[in-house]
Amino acid sequence: MVYMSTDFPGLTSAQAELVKHWRACCRGGSLPFREQLDPGQIRAHLSEVSIVEIRDNKEARFRLVGSGLRKVFGREMRGRKVTDLDQGMLEMLSLGLERSCEEQRPVGGLIERSKDTHAWLRLPLQGPAQSVQVLCHDVLIPNARLKDEYSREFNTRSVSMRNLAA
Predict the structure, then answer these.
(1) Is the pLDDT reported for residue 73 higher than 90?
(2) I need a surface site. Which of 15, 45, 52, 158 has the fewest CB within 10 A?
(3) How many C-beta atoms surround the C-beta of residue 138 within 10 A?
(4) Residue ranges per domain, the chain?
(5) How many whole angstroms separate alpha carbon 29 and alpha carbon 3?
(6) Secondary structure of residue 149 in the 3-state scheme
(7) CA-wise closest residue to 85 among 70, 63, 100
(8) For the CA atoms of the chain, what is the radius of gyration?
(9) What count of Cα atoms within 13 Å lies in the side-chain half-sphere of residue 68?
(10) Are 123 and 18 a contacting pair, CB within 8 Å?
(11) Which letter does DSSP use for residue 123 in this model?
């Protein structure tokens, strides 16, 4: 049985909704299986969701990829290895995969870029034998929209825009 800590609340409203649903699916202190997630409860975010399966040999492969991620990745990635991504995308996606698996808890953050910000979230799941799965949420948010959302929703938190990874 896999146990976890669930102290990361999410940094954007989408992340907060996904973490809330993930927590509700955790039963008896163990990580949820992919089948326990209810797509209807997170339908607003499905286009930005992927599920990565990491095998014992450390090979990571996309099992599910939302349609909105085709624009982010530049092509359909379902069934492909994570290492098939270009170096920049590989680094963005990989950020947090290992940590969420090791710590068995939600991990997320924001990466500021010139015109947008990459909001990322990694939620560990119990996988089939000899593997682990991670539900990933990745979205590129125009900086102006993010700053508006950040100031409106998170102005009471003591979180620095430069140090948001949990």
Answers:
(1) no
(2) 158
(3) 21
(4) 13-153
(5) 6
(6) helix
(7) 70
(8) 15
(9) 14
(10) yes
(11) E
